[in-house]
């Protein structure tokens, strides 16, 4: 990669980080491209070269959020390993991602902006629905192997996500509670595993 390309990439990341900070601190409606440029230490023209509008810049932030959500450790189903051991790897990766401060900042921005614009929320949900995540794929494979009860894999995956997020996402987003410690993450993961496998494992 040439030096100019690296500089361009650095400026793009600086713009995105500045936008996250501004959206988080001031909300979507109040944040201006001028302020984002000033915070990023670049010209307004540079911001517009990378992102033609505030909406497109926000869409890129949502895209990065979704990449982080779906970049959780992909674990292919293994018929030769205990279900609990395999599922624990997936849940641990999810809890680590949910505890990441940058991820929580992005989530706050996205939630605040979508509350004020149902159209934006619909677009976000549609974008997320385009890509099936690892846990759903894993559940489907375990069902096909006759080791989990037959239920819609998406439904079962959403259930286990709910068990995690009630401790490791919503209290932090809505009440400003600190991220879970490693010990607390283990407790939440073990409890979710007990409940999920206690009901679904054959």
UniProtKB/TrEMBL annotation:
* InterPro entries hit by this protein: DNA-bd_HTH_TetR-type_CS, Homeodomain-like_sf, HTH-type_TetR-like_transc_reg, HTH_TetR, Tet_transcr_reg_TetR-rel_C_sf, TetR_C_Proteobacteria
Q: Which UniProt keywords apply?
A: DNA-binding, Transcription, Transcription regulation
Leader sequence segment: none
Q: Which SUPFAM superfamilies match?
A: Homeodomain-like (SSF46689), Tetracyclin repressor-like, C-terminal domain (SSF48498)
Quote one Gene Ontology molecular function term: transcription cis-regulatory region binding
Q: Which positions are tagged coiled coil?
A: none
One short Pfam name that applies is TetR_N
Gene3D superfamilies from the entry?
Homeodomain-like (1.10.10.60), Tetracycline Repressor, domain 2 (1.10.357.10)
Q: Where does the HTH tetR-type domain lie?
A: 9-69
DNA-binding region listed in the record: 32-51
List, alphabetically, the PROSITE patterns matched. HTH_TETR_1 (PS01081), HTH_TETR_2 (PS50977)
The entry's protein name is: TetR family transcriptional regulator
Organism for this UniProt entry: Pseudomonas laurylsulfatiphila
